[in-house]
Write a structure and sequence with these properties.
Blueprint: E1 4-10, H1 11-23, E2 27-33
Parallel strand pairs: 1-2
Length: 43
């Protein structure tokens, strides 16, 4: 069974993801990724 996770996300989403992991009884470590520079973006 899964008991630990590594979360990589934008800082905006990381706090919530860590909270959810901890509430799910998972040991969680989070790393905030840099925001993309929109190179090659369709937007």
């Amino acid at each position: 069974m899964l008991d630990s996770v590594l979360l990589v996300s934008q800082a905006f989403h990381l706090e919530r993801a860590l909270f959810i992991a901890q509430r799910s009884n998972l040991k969680a470590i989070g790393f905030a990724a840099e925001s993309p520079n929109n190179e090659g973006s369709l937007m």
